[in-house]
Structures are given as C-alpha cells and as structure tokens.
C-alpha cells in the first residue's frame, strides 16, 4: 500500500520522535539513499564516527537502524520513510548492499522458522485429542482460579473498603498474577483495574463495588456456562480471556458498509497497549469495536484514523453482543468523517444501553451517540449534556475538554458520540452545524480537532 | 446535578449495600431493605450463609440492575444564553491548524504574529481553539492580551463570560468583577473598562479610592496606564498625597507621561536648577560641560513627587537621587540643546552613569525615539566590549526599546563586524520588530560565520536564534537559512543541527502563516 506522510507520522512513538523524524526527512542529510523492490535504505551521519545505517522492509513495514536509540521506530527510520513517502524517485534503484541483504535474509529465515513452528503447532493443534486435552487442562485451571478469586473478593467485602487505598500495588497485582497463572488474562485485567479504581477520585467506592460485582458475576456465570446460550457462552469466554484466533473468523460473513471511525483511545496496561477504535456503519447504523494491541515498544496499527470514513468489510466476533470486529478489507478511499449516524435522544440511548447490558451484564463501555444536547456546567463545576426536556447526562469527570464542546456549540444543541460507562459519558466526537470534530487526535496536544 | 429515581427500592438497597461494603461485613454492615419485583426475588434467592458472600451476590445483581434502569432526572444547572449569531468570519481550516500548532506544538512565541495577521485580515480564531486561547490570555495578559483579544470574536467574549477565572473580555462582566473579585480580577476589570471608557474607569477608582486597601492602591493606580490622558491628571495629582511611597511612585510614573501636567512642570524646574549645560571655553575651543548640583537630602516636595532616597546598585546615594530625578522627568524638559548634545556632555561628566541610565529609563517609559537614538549612540561608546555590557545592560536595552527600528538595526550592524558576538546578540534580542530584508540577510550571514566557531556564549546564542531571531527575521529568507552553514568544522554538533532545523522550520511556518491569513 502507498503510505502517506500523515500515516507515516502516526508511526512515531511520541511527539518528540515525530519532530526529530521530520527534521531528518531531508534528502540532503543522507549520504546514501537506495532502494529495490522490497526495501529502502540509507546512511546518515550521527554523533558517532561511523554513519548510521537505516533499513526499511517495505512489505510490512519493518525498520532497523544501527543507531543506539531505544525508540521504535527511531527518528532515522521515520525520516527515511518520510523522504520515501514524499518522493520515491530520490532513491537510487540498485542492488542492496550487504548490510541490507543480510538483514532481509535474516528476517526471511526468522519468518520461515515462525511459519514452521506455527504449522507444527497447527498440526499439533489439529490433533483433536491433544487439543481437547489442552482445553480441558486450561478449563481446570480457570475453574480453580475462579474459586480463588471469589474467596478473595468476599474477603474484600469482609474487611471493608476503608484501608484499601493504602494497599500497595502488589496487593492487586499479586492477585492479577494468580489469574494469569490460571490462564484467565481477561480476569487479570479486571483485577488490576480494581486497584486503579481505588485512586480514581470521588465516588471510587461505588465504582469499586460495581467492578467487584462485575467480577463475581463473571465467575458465577462461567461456572454455569454450559447451561447458557451460545451467544452468552462466547461473550463469557471472551471476557475471561479465551481469545478467538483470526483464522476462526474465516467463516463469519462480512458486513459491508461505509464505516465511520468515531473515536480512538489508547489504554496503557502493564507491558501491553490496547487501542480501542469505535466504528459505526453509515447504512447499517450498527456500532463496531476494533481492538488492536501492541506489546512493549512495538508500534500500534496506524491504519485506523479517528475522524475518517471508509467503505469496507468487517467481520464480527461471535457472541451475543456482536460489538467486537476486525476489518477484513477496505473497498475504497478513506475520506474525512462528516456525520454521526444513528444519534438518539437521551432516553432512547439509555434504553439501548439497557438492552445491551441485558445481553452482556459485564459490559464496561458502550458506544453512545446522543442528539440535541447542550453542555452545561453545574454549581460544583461538574459538566453534563442536557437535552431540551432538561435531562442531563453526566460527563466523565476526567474529561477535560468540556469548554471546547461549549465553544463549538455556542450555547446551541450539538450531537455527541462517546463511551457510556453506566454512570457517565466520555465524549469522543462531536457533530455541530454541519461541522465534525474528534477529541484528542494525534500527538499534538490539541484538545479537539476539526475534521470536516 | 442529577437525582437518580428508582421506584422499586433497588437504588436505596444499593446505597445501603455500598455503606455496608465500606464498613465491611465483619463490622456488621448490611441492611435488608425490601426490593420489589424480579430484582427482589433474585436478591432473596442469592442469600448465603456467609454475609460477605451475600454481599458479593447483591453487588453483582444490584450494580447491573441500577445501571440498566437508571433514570436521568431533570438537572438543575442552567443553560447559558446562546452566543451571539453575529460574528466575524472564521479563519480557514489551514490557518486554524497553524494556530493549533502554535498553541500545542511548541511555536507559542508566534502567537502574537498569528493574531496580528488574522486581525488584519478581519478573521477570528476557530471555536474549538478558543478555550486554549482564553487560557493563555489568563497567564499572558500583559504580553499577549491585546493580540489574543483581537481574534476572539463575539464567540470568544461569550465563552469567557461563562468561565469563573477568564478575564472579562467585555465590560458587562468587568463591572461584576470590579465589585466582587479579588485584586487580580479587579485590576484586569479596571483595565478592561479603561479600554472602553477611560473616564468611567477613573471615576470608579476615584469613588472607591478611600476604601481601598493600602496594599492594593498602587496596583489599581497602575491600571490607569490604559487609556491615559490629561483628563487623569487631577486624580493622579491627588494620589501624590498618599502616605505610601509606592502609591506616590505609581502616580508619578503616570504623570511623567503627561508633559502638560503640573508634575511635569515641577520636575522640569528641578532638573533645570540642578543640571546645567554650559559652554566652557578652553584653549582648544568651546565644549559643552555639565554642571550638577545636588541637594544633600530629599525635601518634602520631592518625596511627594514620588522620589525616594533608595540607592540604585552601582551608584552612590546622590547619584541614585539624580538618576531617579532624571528618570521621572518628561524628556521635553531638557531644552536648550539636542538630545545628542546632552548625552555627549554627560559622557564626559562625573555623573555619567546616573544621567545616561536615568535618561534611558525615561526614554523607554515615554517611548521617545530621538532620545533613544541619542542614548544608543552614547552607550555604544561606553560598551566597548562584553566586559562593559553588564554594567550598562539595562540602560542599553531601555534605549533600544525606545529607538525606532531603523536606529536599532544600525546599532546592531555596527557591532556585527567586531569579534564580540555577545553584545551583538544582546542588541539583537532587543530588536523587537519585524526586521527589514537587508538587515535580516546581514544577520543571517553573520550567524553563519559565528557557527561553528564555538563562541563562548554559544548556547545562549543558539537559544536566541531558535526562539527570538526566528520570530523577527524576514521569513522570505527561509530557503537561504537552510543552507550555507559550515558543517565541515569540528565544532558542528547535533545541538547546532537542531538549532538550524528549528530556525528554518520557524521561518517556513511564518511564510505559510502569511499565505493563509491574507485578507
């Protein structure tokens, strides 16, 4: 695919790398620029004696640079890629030098080895007996883990919440580790979240109790999973941490539509970053959640950009709620998003949430688009979105851009899309007077950016 | 702000459960309220032997039930009056993105320029950037206030009125702030009112004067600088009777800007008595010489006019008094000779520093261009090298501030040839105007020779280049600024790389700004 400058910049791990990368995106700074069909390479002098050697494998893309930077991709890789993105002709076509060819060969062999192992794994996995054995073993571990969790949760309620804020991180992390040992990573995440809730500010006790209730519900539900219907079973398994392999989605029918990307948020967890992308089909008027992950310093998928729309096909994960999906393919051009489809009045939006909650009671965040609201500020400084009848949806107290919403609307009604937690809304995009805005896009600290 | 109404008793039970959870089952928390319907039945069925386990089950049931059935009540916050529909045109999307880059990506020193270009084109800032602008106005009111206000539009004023901390941009709210705000708010309010109606502002202060706290008076008085005119003289004259020295000084500083005032006449008479320019005939012809006779101490009248016997660093007691006198006198009082004659005579006098420094301060405050030029000339002679710079630095900067752009540029150009980049750098940093094309080219060429010679003040100069020079240089030189640096020398480093890069990016950015913000 053709990489645009904007997409390349999104690969930068942080704002200072982006700046530095741009600074190096000048052909004059590079003493060597070459390419062939598969790779792009360059040499640039740095603070050391010998110049740095930077390579890019275009098929992925993958980067490698000899500079000592720990960032990934480093500023040299970014700069080189930017030059390529702006004008390929600057690169002299030719045979790859040794240091490029060696690297590519190394990658190929690693890929081959990985494919080998995966094939072996699949062969092993294909063996139904061995597979069944593994699954049974995991279920046993999970069952034991759930029992342990339940006891621990009951203990929390026995001792009371009073001393919990003083507990060290290890108190929560320890239990999370036990869940990881029990091969239930979904539960591990929720346990760690309990710890974070104790320091989440006013009203933390109610949020903690809700989260504890959620965990207990999952535990009880999972124990009875065989008595539940297929949709609930899938959702429960997914919540506990069974992952659905992309291959398993192969049979799922595609849903084709014009998809609007209404919001993107990145959650930092332990050594994993999770990218929550909320999409909404323009015709089907159905929401979709695309979850992407990146471990450690690896770059996150930069192909989904908040505030854009693209025609494409999605495949939804099995489950009662049918929210999580993957992008199977794009079938046309990406353009700026310009509208919020399927906005509802506050009562209808809440009713839809209620229905969703009935299907998946452990639901944490629900995509909600409300129409015709005005941001209002209460006497204590708390913001809410108020409709003409006076109903006021509380805005997430951690949301710091309510003034921008007020400014955009100018006191008039606007439509807002965001995540509803059951208690408050975290706005992600706004439609007002034919203009479209997204919250917090890109590395620049701009609170709210106009997209159309 | 919202009251949750549940009719089945579930909400009350949830609150009771929460209370019990905070306390802990061990401490006997728990309340068995009645809950209706299916929820109630489920709660009954979930009861266990162990109270903690019962609470767990109740938490699971009630948290979902209450969240699903949550009814949003009609809130009691008030919706503000909508913003006025009538408003100036908003700038283009691209210009808006430039403003966002200025506010959020580290080009904030270019904000005044963006605002000036936008205001000249009759455009206002985009709605979604108004909060950031107003936030900045709060902390940079003095340096950027006028610039930011010129691009807020009606929407911006409306928005500011909604926020408890943002300076009142319109006088309606200023009245409120004047009555009820703290000293910061009231100074801002007074300035705002003076902008619209100076007479009214003065009257308001005069009315409340007697009741004002002693510590506040000087600051409030200083706010009268906005919209200052002869009409303010009477009130300021009466303020000279105040018991506090700082109040008298504040009044005197403003009166010095009114050459027709009684204060001006008094000061003029004083300096006329104390400092005389005379022709001295000598063997080599006539030359002008200054005769200075200073009193031993301040008299009552002097104290009333804001003079104090505080010693200025680097000057003796009498010299300090002379400097204060000179600094507080309207420059029109120095009649009988050209500014250059006065400064030339002062340069040879024993009282040289007091006079030059005092005049420089007066010139800066009174924005007097001819005096600024004359003083610059004199100071150039005094500051032969960086060694003399620190002593005369404030005066030098004051003289530069009052001089006009062409004079400033000449002062710098004279220095560029010398081996001393420190003084040139300081002078350049005082060239707070849009540099002419020729001057810009000359400075650019000079910079290219300084680097990578590793000048002793290298890093300071680098900072100046990045932030200051980039802001003033003619942006048409962007392409030229990108090349021609002597990178082959050993002294070149990534720090210099960064400097040139930032410098060029800033110039290119300013070129783009001009393209986008055309009327």
What does this structure look like?
The complex is a heterodimer of chains A (about 450) and B (about 525). Chain A has about 450 residues and is an alpha+beta fold. Helices cover about 35% and strands about 25% of the residues of chain A. Chain A is built from 11 helices and 18 strands. In chain A, the strands form 3 sheets. Chain A has a 7-stranded antiparallel beta sheet with strand order 14-13-12-15-16-17-18. In chain A, strands 6, 7, 8, 9, 10 and 11 form a 6-stranded antiparallel beta sheet that branches. Chain A has a 5-stranded mixed beta sheet with strand order 4-3-2-1-5, sandwiched between helices. In chain A, β3 and β4 (about 60-65) form a beta hairpin. In chain A, α2 (about 15-25) packs across α3 and α5 (about 130-160) runs antiparallel to α8. The longest helix of chain A has about 30 residues, at about 130-160. Chain A is globular, with a radius of gyration of 25 Å. The relative contact order of chain A is 0.07. By secondary structure, chain B is mainly alpha-helical. Helices cover about 60% and strands about 5% of the residues of chain B. Chain B has 27 helices and 2 strands. Chain B has a two-stranded antiparallel sheet with strand order 1-2. In chain B, β1 (about 275-280) and β2 form a beta hairpin. In chain B, α12 packs parallel to α14 (about 245-255), α20 (about 370-380) packs antiparallel against α21 and α22 runs antiparallel to α23 (about 420-430). In chain B, about 40% of the residues are buried. At the A-B interface, α5, α8, α10, β12 and β14 of A face α1, α3, α4, α6 and α8 of B.
- The topology string of helices and strands of chain B comes to HHHHHHHHHHHHHHHEEHHHHHHHHHHHH
How many helices of chain A? The count is: 11
Rg of chain A computed from alpha carbons, rounded to a whole number of angstroms: 25 Å
Which strand order do you get reading across the main beta sheet of chain A?
14-13-12-15-16-17-18
- Report the total helices of chain B: 27
Percent of sequence in beta strands of chain A: 25-35%
Low-confidence stretches of chain A: none
**Envelope shape of chain B:** extended
Biggest sheet strand line-up of chain B: 1-2
Which percent range fits the helix content of chain B? 55-70%
H-E string of chain A: HHEEEEHEHHHHHHEEEEEEHEEEHEEEE
Structural class of chain B, by secondary structure, is mainly alpha
Strand content range of chain B: under 5%
For the termini of chain B, the CA-CA separation is 46 Å
Rounded mean pLDDT score of chain A: 88
